[in-house]
UniProtKB/TrEMBL annotation:
<feature type="transmembrane region" description="Helical">
    <location>
        <begin position="128"/>
        <end position="149"/>
    </location>
</feature>
<dbReference type="GO" id="GO:0015293">
    <property type="term" value="F:symporter activity"/>
</dbReference>
<comment type="similarity">
    <text>Belongs to the sodium:solute symporter (SSF) (TC 2.A.21) family.</text>
</comment>
<feature type="transmembrane region" description="Helical">
    <location>
        <begin position="398"/>
        <end position="418"/>
    </location>
</feature>
<keyword id="KW-0915">Sodium</keyword>
<keyword id="KW-0769">Symport</keyword>
<feature type="transmembrane region" description="Helical">
    <location>
        <begin position="77"/>
        <end position="97"/>
    </location>
</feature>
<keyword id="KW-0472">Membrane</keyword>
<dbReference type="InterPro" id="IPR001734">
    <property type="entry name" value="Na/solute_symporter"/>
</dbReference>
<keyword id="KW-1133">Transmembrane helix</keyword>
<feature type="transmembrane region" description="Helical">
    <location>
        <begin position="451"/>
        <end position="472"/>
    </location>
</feature>
<keyword id="KW-0739">Sodium transport</keyword>
<feature type="transmembrane region" description="Helical">
    <location>
        <begin position="45"/>
        <end position="65"/>
    </location>
</feature>
<feature type="transmembrane region" description="Helical">
    <location>
        <begin position="195"/>
        <end position="213"/>
    </location>
</feature>
<keyword id="KW-1003">Cell membrane</keyword>
<keyword id="KW-0406">Ion transport</keyword>
<feature type="transmembrane region" description="Helical">
    <location>
        <begin position="319"/>
        <end position="337"/>
    </location>
</feature>
Length: 493
């Protein structure tokens, strides 16, 4: 191996040790409350850690690999679209997280499917809702997890000069270890370390770009290649109209507020947390990471004939960064990909070991027994995700990720988002999940409607079903209200 490859292996070994140590240290949250500690970090996340894990998971590898590639192909419209994620996440923190956290804390919800069940009355219908929500979460996030494992495996293989299978196995193994040790607390703290590295990478990249190019010459060069790059007349991959890019804002908001692997962060925050502090940190970190797609425009000027746009970032690092800095930034990009992969793995394992268990058996194991089941689920589902990646047919990483996350968002919008402000019935929640799943999934798989139209249409139809069916059926009181009514009745008697 050449010296820089040895350097890369050394960096990787040091970070693996760091991540596993964090996993070990955060296991103390589990000892205080075995299942709650594993599932929601003992509700211990402070403002900076909460913001760090939200931003790291939200931007992920898409921010460093996918978005520069899309910007290379379609131009500045993707830079604008990517910038909407930071304000959308901040809005979700400031104007939604408090409501979700307070209701979940009152009911004792430890997962989003459990929140859906408890907020719609519990009992037999609650078990059905928790089971259906858990199954949908597992199916769709396993699809997403497969794409993330492949993405991190591909980048690691190129960086370390090893085979894809070896790289993917190495990366998912360390994720399994620290997630199994510390649960959501380990995921959140490792995400925070990762997002700091991602922010440093963004600053280094922007310094290199803007100190090496004349802006006027840059603009002239891009206009000579294709005037659509800076002055688009369509929404490109977002839709026919330029205005469709603004759909990214509601999409990103719902992405942050509804998806189980994102919304679980709100449940894990400390009671009484200052949400405005979380919002400020989210805005700063998100704004830094929103600059990354500019790499695509820079590379379109420098190398206008790349056959594969997704090679924009790797080619940029290879040609414009010192090998040592290239290795460091590649490590940070791996961090970005891992931050989503570990969140997906934790959420899928929680849905399997907690939600399906309660839906099927309706009983709690001992704390020790439940924790053992949680940890076994992490190992098994991590291996399943790896095998799915190794034996799946070729697929487009970005599209597969949106298929999983967008369809899950359409399934959950009614029972998670709308129910926080307007309580529907159990039948409304069940109908909304099934209709959202089918609508978004069908449009993504069988219709040419762009990447956002399918999930957002699914969200609209699912929301209408939630409200409409709830109005036609008796809206079920929450578990807390039911308990209060029973207690009052008992006292009167």
């Amino acid at each position: 191996m050449d010296p820089y490859t040895i350097f890369n292996w050394g960096l990787l070994a040091l970070t693996f040790v760091l991540l596993i140590v964090i996993g070990y240290l955060t296991s103390r949250y589990i000892t205080k409350d075995s299942e709650g500690g594993f599932l929601v970090a003992g509700r211990s996340l402070g403002p900076f850690v909460a913001a760090g894990t939200i931003v790291a998971t939200g931007f992920s590898g898409w921010g460093f690999i996918g978005s520069p590639g899309v910007t290379y192909k379609f131009g500045a419209i993707e830079v604008l679209g990517n910038f909407f994620f930071a304000p959308a996440m901040m809005i979700a923190v400031l104007y939604f997280a408090r409501f979700l956290q307070s209701r979940a804390l009152e009911m004792g919800s430890n997962t989003i499917p459990e929140y859906v069940a408890q907020s719609h009355g519990g009992g037999t219908m609650g078990r059905v809702l928790q089971g259906v929500a858990g199954i949908i979460t597992i199916l769709l996030l396993l699809v997403f997890l497969t794409s993330q494992i492949k993405a991190v495996g591909l980048l690691g293989a190129e960086w370390l000069d090893i085979e894809l299978g070896t790289s993917a196995t190495l990366m998912i193994s360390v994720i399994i270890i620290y997630t199994m040790l510390g649960g959501l607390a380990a995921v959140a703290w490792t995400d925070t370390v990762m997002v700091c590295g991602m922010a440093v990478a963004a600053v280094l990249i922007m310094i290199q770009i803007f100190t090496s190019v004349d802006l006027t010459a840059w603009q002239s060069s891009l206009n000579s290649i294709d005037p659509e790059l800076l002055n688009p007349t369509t929404g490109a991959h977002y839709g026919d109209s330029v205005g469709t890019v603004f759909l990214v804002l509601p999409y990103a908001f719902l992405f942050s507020a509804v998806l189980p692997y994102m919304a679980i962060r709100f449940l894990a925050m400390k009671p009484g947390i200052k949400f405005h502090k979380v919002g400020v940190y989210v805005a700063i970190l998100g704004a830094l990471l929103s600059l990354i797609p500019i790499v695509g425009l820079y590379m379109r000027m420098q190398f206008p004939e790349l056959e594969d746009p997704d090679r924009a970032m790797p080619m940029y690092l290879e040609h414009f960064m010192h090998p040592a800095i290239q290795g460091l930034i590649t490590l940070f990009i791996l961090f970005a990909m891992k931050s989503t992969a570990n969140s997906l793995l934790h959420t899928v394992a929680s849905a399997t070991s907690h939600d399906l268990r309660l839906a099927l058996f309706g009983e709690h194991h001992s704390d020790h027994g439940a924790l053992t089941i949680n940890r076994i689920a992490v190992v098994i589902l991590g291996i399943v995700g790896l095998l799915m990646m190794l034996y799946a047919p070729p697929f487009m990483l970005s599209w597969l990720g949106i298929l999983g996350s967008g369809t899950l968002m359409a399934s959950m919008i009614g029972p998670v988002f709308i129910s926080t402000f307007w309580q529907g019935s159990g039948w409304g929640a069940l109908t909304a999940m099934i209709v959202g799943f089918c609508t978004s999934g069908y449009m993504m798989l069988f219709m040419e409607v762009g990447w956002l139209i399918g999930p957002l249409t699914g969200c609209a139809v699912s929301s209408a079903c939630y409200v409409g069916v709830s109005l036609l059926t008796d809206r079920t009181r929450t578990g807390a209200e039911t308990d209060a009514t029973n207690l009052t009745g008992t006292s009167s008697t």
